[in-house]
């Protein structure tokens, strides 16, 4: 007797934060049924006037839903074009079943009520369809689990999980004769390593003796991805800042290479990202005059938020947000008194510290651009910024993907991680993850233990 398998379509109930994170999430659930609770529309409506990324996404979702009205009544369900359907749910708002556990009638609990009602209705069918609540809110997923509802994070925009993110460097054990060959000829064919995986352009390689001796070599893949070459920089200090570990040396190699216009640096607090980038930028603008201006920016989180609540002119309002940048500049210029750095920057005129709010929409040619705290940028925001880079400019994006202040981003979905993964096989970019904290022993312990 032949056994037949029946594949049941699923019902996905979407939380508001999914749509505010990715307006195109509606089309990410294949041929299944997508449910938007009515309270989600109300929450989206409350966000559409915001001037930041959340407001932009709210307006985008509104336009998408308005376009679907041509297909029929949203409360009856309309086709999505990929075999699935979309429905705005009006009739599953009963809160009675949740009151014993979650008595407060807030928006999260109303969304949970929709999912619970669907789940219980499906259990009465001979072949119940799975009901899945999709939310980026951890506590909403926990509540769903308490109610017996399957819940999951929205992951379709994750290129890679954070622990698997490209690090920009790998250690390879090899025969000592291969290391000797590199030191003799100052270059090495990748084929001689007999690797099972492909090395990427501008990736760093640490060769170690497979016999266990101390013999080693530090190399970089050339931009063609076909051969290994030595680092072109010596280990001399840059604006008084010398590399204290191998990853910092790799970072300086990328920062000072004019043939790599996009550099990404990741690492925990105290690993030297900002200091190294500023030192390299000062060398390139003030000493070598390769770039006409050094532009340093960081997002005012949430990005685009009006900073008019702070007193004073624009510079005074920006100062609290930009203070980490000024702290590093004071160290590099070795200032002694308060206010010295402001006078130095005013005298130079070629160093500009800005909030990202003020550089979006501009075209920026011939500049060394540093974007700090880039992990707080969304994919759309980072695309907007990198696409502003003009001819002859270099941009450095840096941050700690594990330290996110944005409400709808995480270590795997933020703009910095997105750029690292999308550009990792491009000859115009280079990346390195800084691992060892150099600020102080206490700072390193804090980053690891806290």
What does this molecule look like?
- The protein is α/β, with parallel strands linked by helices and 450 residues long.
- It has 3 domains: 11-152, Rossmann fold (3-Layer(aba) Sandwich), CATH 3.40.50.1010; 159-230, Roll (Archaeosine Trna-guanine Transglycosylase, Chain: A, domain 4), CATH 2.30.130; 244-449, P-loop containing nucleotide triphosphate hydrolases (Rossmann fold), CATH 3.40.50.300.
- Helix content is 33%, strand content 18%.
- The chain has 13 helices and 17 strands.
- The chain has helices at 16-21, 38-47, 53-68, 107-123, 138-146, 176-185, 246-255, 273-287, 314-333, 340-348, 379-386, 415-423, 441-449; strands at 11-14, 33-37, 78-79, 85-89, 131-134, 150-152, 169-174, 188-189, 204-209, 216-221, 227-230, 262-267, 293-298, 351-355, 367-371, 394-399, 429-434.
- The strands form 3 sheets. The protein has a 6-stranded mixed sheet. Strands 14-13-15-16-12-17 form a 6-stranded parallel sheet, with helices on both faces. A 5-stranded mixed sheet has the order 7-9-10-11-8.
- Helix 8 packs across helix 9 (314-333) and helix 11 packs across helix 12 (415-423).
- The protein starts with 10 loop residues before the first strand and ends with a helix.
- Residues 302-307 have low confidence and may be disordered.
């Amino acid at each position: 007797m032949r056994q037949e398998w029946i594949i049941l379509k699923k019902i996905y109930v979407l939380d508001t934060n999914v749509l505010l994170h990715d307006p195109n999430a509606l089309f990410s659930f294949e041929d299944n049924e997508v449910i938007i609770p009515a309270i989600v529309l109300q929450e989206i409506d409350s966000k559409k006037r915001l001037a930041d990324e959340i407001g932009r996404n709210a307006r985008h979702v509104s336009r998408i839903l308005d376009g679907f009205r041509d297909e029929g009544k949203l409360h009856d369900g309309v086709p999505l074009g990929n075999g699935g359907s979309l429905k705005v749910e009006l009739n599953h708002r009963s809160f009675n079943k949740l009151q014993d556990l979650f008595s407060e009638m807030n928006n999260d609990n109303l969304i949970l009520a929709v999912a619970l009602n669907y789940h219980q209705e499906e259990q009465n069918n001979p072949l119940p369809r799975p009901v899945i609540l999709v939310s980026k809110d951890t506590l909403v997923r926990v509540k769903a689990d308490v109610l017996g509802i399957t819940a999951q994070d929205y992951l379709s925009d994750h290129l890679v999980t954070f622990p698997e993110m490209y690090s920009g460097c790998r250690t390879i054990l090899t025969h000592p004769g291969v290391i000797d060959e590199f030191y003799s000829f100052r270059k090495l064919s990748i084929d001689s390593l007999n690797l099972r995986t492909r090395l990427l352009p501008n990736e760093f390689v640490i060769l170690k003796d497979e016999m266990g001796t101390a013999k080693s070599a530090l190399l970089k893949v050339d931009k063609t991805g076909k051969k290994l070459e030595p680092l072109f920089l010596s280990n001399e200090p840059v604006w008084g800042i010398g590399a204290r570990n191998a990853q910092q040396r790799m970072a300086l190699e990328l920062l000072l290479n004019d043939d790599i216009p996009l550099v990404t640096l990741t690492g925990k607090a105290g690993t030297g990202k900002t200091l190294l980038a500023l030192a390299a930028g000062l060398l390139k603008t003030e000493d070598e005059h390769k770039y006409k201006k050094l532009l340093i920016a960081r997002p005012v989180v949430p990005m685009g938020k009006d900073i008019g609540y702070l007193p004073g002119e624009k510079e005074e309002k920006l100062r609290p947000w930009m203070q980490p940048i000024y702290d590093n500049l004071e160290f590099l210029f070795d200032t002694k008194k308060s206010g010295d750095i402001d006078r130095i920057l005013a005298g130079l005129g070629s160093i500009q510290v800005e909030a990202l709010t003020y550089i979006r929409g501009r075209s920026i040619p011939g500049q060394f651009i540093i974007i700090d705290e880039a992990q707080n940028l969304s994919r759309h925001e980072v695309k907007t910024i990198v696409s502003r880079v003009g001819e002859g400019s270099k941009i450095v994006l840096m941050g700690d993907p594990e330290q996110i202040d944005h409400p709808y981003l995480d270590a795997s979905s933020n703009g910095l991680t997105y750029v690292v993964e999308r550009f990792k096989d491009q000859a115009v970019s280079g990346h390195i993850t800084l691992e060892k904290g150099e600020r102080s022993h206490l700072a390193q312990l804090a980053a690891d233990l806290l």
